[in-house]
Amino acid sequence: MKYFVFLFLLYCIPASAQQKCILTPDSLGKTFAAAFLHKEDISKMPIFPDSKEMDMVDKMGISSNQTAVTVGSEEDNASFNQLKASWQELLQLAKVKNVNATTARFVRVYFAEQEFPVEQVKTPHYSIYVLLKQATGNIAVKFDVLWRDQKWLLINIDNDFYSYSEKPGGKSPGGKSSFRAKKWNTLTKIPKIIFAQSSSATAKGWQNSGTCLADPIPFANKVLQDLAAKQPAEKFSNLISATDFKRIYQPDLQVLVNQAVKDAASMSASNRTELKKMQAMMKENPVALHKEYVTDHIEKLTEYLGTIDFTTKKVRAVEYSITNFDHEIWSAGKIIIKINAVIDSSNGQEGILFYAGWHDGRWQIISMQETTYGTSVAE
């Protein structure tokens, strides 16, 4: 039943190319994978924090690893830090599990971005999963970086592997449940590792490279302007077309519908009727599907905002997060942005929630919540 419910949570988002560039860590993840598979010294990589940056990382307290350091050993000193310890444990685990450049290959990078307050400055923070393919199946390694001072800064490395399974749509096992910790790491002390010659240390450009996404804030502001102006949904900036919606997103909805069909016996008669309606639209009239689950939601939200006299002057805050996995509805691999706008109204503060996909070098509206939510119960 939970899969069926998700079908009615479709929201919407528009986009336009902007001046500011938001980088994604795809190039970084590929280089990180090479350093891991060839057992390079992480501390020699340009993304490794210097002593001043390490103090900042320590204050953040983001690491969840429980790495043991033997008292009196060479690791028991100020220069041997959590990042190095986690890296050595991960490499030791790779040795035990026979994960190396011969037995595994890089597949792709999955990431989730959210602004993180660092020294009172909102800073892009990425959690990154590097997916590797072995003969026995896929595994992943996880690390965290900041985009700070126009470069990537490493702040955390998980000292265990993750399993990975990919299915379009749904919360289990795809979407939010794509990555699960293996819990293979049972080490009680940091192992000795002989590092290979580091090629990453001399590589040019990768530490500040990646796919450039348009700045979401001007895009979000334009969406809010269109809502305030009571624009018809089809005139919203960069609304995804019915053709692209059918090609890119309808397959994911079909997976959810198929899952709902399996649970149809436990549904109410009205839900079964709605399910059959969706099945028919997907097969016979995708334009109607686009209207009912995309543009109609925009129209309903626009109508409601008119009743509370919404204007852009009533926008209190706009926040966003970007990810190419961890979607409730859409399959892994799609770059999706989630935008929350908090507004003032006579009812108190309310939230507007909408989503966009990154296609053809711009954000395109794919879904919008058809009504506001109370900020005390934000999703």
Automatic annotation (TrEMBL):
Residues 1-17 form the signal peptide. Keywords: Signal. This is Nuclear transport factor 2 family protein. It comes from Pedobacter cryoconitis. The lineage of its organism: Bacteria, Pseudomonadati, Bacteroidota, Sphingobacteriia, Sphingobacteriales.
